[in-house]
Amino acid sequence: MSILVYKVSKSLGNSKILDRVSLYVPKFALVALLGPSGSGKSSLLRIIAGLDHCERGNIWLNGIDMTNVSTQYRRMSFVFQNYALFEHMTVYDNISFGLQLRGFTSQKIENKVNDLLNCLRIADISFEYPLQLSGGQKQRVALARSLAIKPDFLLLDEPFGALDGELRRHLRKWLKRYLQDNEITTIMVTHDQGEAVSMADEIVILKGGRVSQQGNPKNLYDQPINYFVGFSMGLLIEIPESDQSISSSNVDKFGNSKNLKKFASDPIWVEIFANRSIYKYRFFLRPYEFCIKSEIDPESTPVQIQTIIYKKTFVQLDLFVNSFLWYFTIPMGYQAFRNLQVQSFAQILYIKPRIEVFLRAYPMLIN
């Protein structure tokens, strides 16, 4: 049950919402649409569902052109951001509604609905009405209603946006497993890069109504096509900035950064640069490509601790390398931070690149 979006375009007045967007979702796969607000993610979902029409392009479902076919014939479920629950029905009736229309027996309906209520942890509100529910509860009811009919295709618009913490992590794992077990082809819109990476078989990055890049999460994370895609997939650490505003004494007679040249020729870092044009590009690494430790190491670069910030799931270290005038941030898990045995801000740490890194190079002018 594959989905093919082919050169889909849509405008609102003089503004292009979608501009020749093409993407492919293999059968039973989960593809995440990732991008900033206004990039066209939700509009694309509505066109795939048949709720909106495109000006150009085609929507193919399982090899059949369904561009002009009504929503009811697309065998598709859609979880809206506003939930779209039936306000006059209880939670149980909302979830069972589609099964009743399809003529399922009372026993099958009861078994299916109760199973979803338990899995989504909403069994205790099964006889309440939508107006009595929190946003997170409504979101889970809408998801349960969409899954109950076992659609061929499922479209999710920020399905966990109202959830947080352990429940959100639990439902990510549960939903991914459920979709695989029931062979449902899925497109999910999210702003959460971590959610996209943990759930999706492939990620599509949208910007300004266009596809910037599509690929599996690892490839997009390690080898993004440009800075926008790279930043969308997680933290990029620039090494060291070629910003010439630091001091005129750090610029040679050709206007190039002495600081960057010094860094690129340093024995510890020189191998990752190869023969790159260091003054034409900005270079970035991912946090995992740094080796950081507290033991003195002559083959590593000494680094000073500026600040330590404790987040929910990680510790953020703001660091400074005096020899290169290089400020950067490294996030790390709590156990890795404990292993460093940091005693004070005066303590010196040591960094170097790991054996294999992907040095990402983007032109100096970044759009």
From TrEMBL:
Gene3D superfamilies: P-loop containing nucleotide triphosphate hydrolases (3.40.50.300). Keywords: ATP-binding, Chloroplast, Nucleotide-binding, Plastid, Sulfate transport, Transport. InterPro entries: AAA+_ATPase, ABC_SmlMolc_Importer, ABC_transporter-like_ATP-bd, ABC_transporter-like_CS, P-loop_NTPase. The keyword Transmembrane helix does not apply. Residues 3-233 form the ABC transporter domain. GO terms for molecular function: ATP binding; ATP hydrolysis activity. SMART domains: AAA (SM00382). Pfam families: ABC_tran. This is CysA. It comes from Apopellia endiviifolia. The lineage of its organism: Eukaryota, Viridiplantae, Streptophyta, Embryophyta, Marchantiophyta.
